[in-house]
Amino acid sequence: SKARMQVIRRFTGGGTVVVDQDTIFSTLIFQGAALPHVECYPQPIMAWTESFYSHAFSAVPGFRQRENDYVFGERKFGGNAQAITGKRWLHHSSLLWDFQPQRMGLLAHPRKQPQYRQGRH
After folding, report:
1. Is residue 27 scored above 90 in pLDDT?
2. Which of 2-16, 50-64, 80-94 has the lowest mean pLDDT?
3. Angle at 62 between CA 23 and CA 100, to 5 degrees
4. Which distant-in-sequence residues (6+ apart) come within 8 Å of 7 by Cβ?
5. What are phi and psi of 33, to 5 degrees?
6. Which of the four, 18, 38, 95, 120, has the lowest number of CB atoms within 10 Å?
7. Whether the Cβ atoms of residue 19 and residue 92 lie closer than 8 Å to each other
8. 104 touches 119 (CB < 8 A)
9. Mean pLDDT of all residues in the chain?
10. Are 99 and 22 spatial neighbours (Cβ–Cβ below 8 Å)?
């Protein structure tokens, strides 16, 4: 039988995620002046968020930002999307706390994916 799932699109784009009790969502909103050392471009913002989240995940080995994903070792557990307007930016993160295999099975693998995720099930 087909699962009935509600689809919600973020204005910032990004990939498809399951919205349930196992996913944690966070949004960071900044004026550029609040972090003058972070340029208002995607890669500098991603590098800063890696540093920001590394404190939260310090007890878990292997945390890092890789190819715009958040990973523990080789396993993606989080994704993100951004909106940048002038000197302001917003950064959405969806972090997988736990997962239900049957729900993850509802997601299609994107045609374009980083090399490290190629061929994964």
Report:
1. yes
2. 2-16
3. 30
4. none
5. -65, -25
6. 120
7. no
8. no
9. 84
10. yes
The rounded distance, in Å, linking the Cα atoms of 47 and 44 is: 5
Residue 102 pLDDT level (bands cut at 50, 70, 90) = confident
41: amino acid identity, one letter: Y
Amino acid at residue number 24:
I
Q: Band of the pLDDT at 1, cuts 50, 70, 90? A: very low
**Residue 34, CA distances (Å) to 3, 14, 100, 112 in order:** 44, 25, 38, 34
pLDDT in tens, 63-88: 999 988 899 998 889 988 899 999 99
The answer to whether the CB of 84 falls within 8 A of the CB of 30 is no
Which tokens belong to 47? 């590098």
Is the distance from CB of 32 to CB of 21 less than 8 angstroms? no
Q: Mean per-residue pLDDT for 99-116?
A: 70
Q: What is the rounded CA–CA span in Å between residue 27 and residue 10?
A: 12
